[in-house]
Amino acid sequence: MDLDTGNLNIPYADKITHFIFYMVFGFVGCLSFRERTKGSLGLSKTTKIVVGLAIVYGIVIEVLQYMVTTDRMAEIGDVLANTLGAFAGIGLIVWFFSKKNPLKWKF
Q1: 3-state secondary structure labels for all residues of 17-61
Q2: pLDDT tens digits for 37-48?
Q3: Cα(56)–Cα(81) distance, rounded to whole angstroms?
Q4: Would you tell me how many other CB atoms lie within 10 Å of the CB of residue 29?
């Protein structure tokens, strides 16, 4: 299924969308875990959990599209875009919390 971009012809618009959504998933997921655990899980463990959840969730959605729907297609490219987006979100989190003047992970 193609993403409706109106009169614009944007190549791979659906993959870009998947990437951005999962980048936000990774970023906000880490911040959510930080809030819920008051920073006690640690940055490394939190990023591993969130990226794992994002990848599994993306694969499950694609498998369900293949098995359950008739008007949607499962694509390995979507899984790849989801995975890369999740890693990009995690990369942003690591950058924010480990640069020269980092944000504090623990409260």
Answers
A1: HHHHHHHHHHHHHHHHHHHHHCCCCCHHHHHHHHHHHHHHHHHHH
A2: 998 999 999 999
A3: 13
A4: 23
Is residue 85 within 8 A of residue 20, CB to CB? The reply is yes
Residues 6+ apart with CB under 8 A from 57: 25
Query: Whole-model pTM?
Result: 0.85
Q: Which residues of the chain register pLDDT less than 50?
A: none
Residue type, 32: S
- Residue found under tokens 């899984």: 79
Supply the DSSP symbol for 64. Answer: H
- Residues 6 or more apart whose Cβ sits within 8 Å of residue 20: 85
Which residues in 61-74 are b (16+ Cβ under 10 Å) and which e? bbeebeeeeeeeee
Q: Summarize the chain as % helix, strand, coil (round to 5).
A: 70, 0, 30
Structure tokens at 16: 């870009």
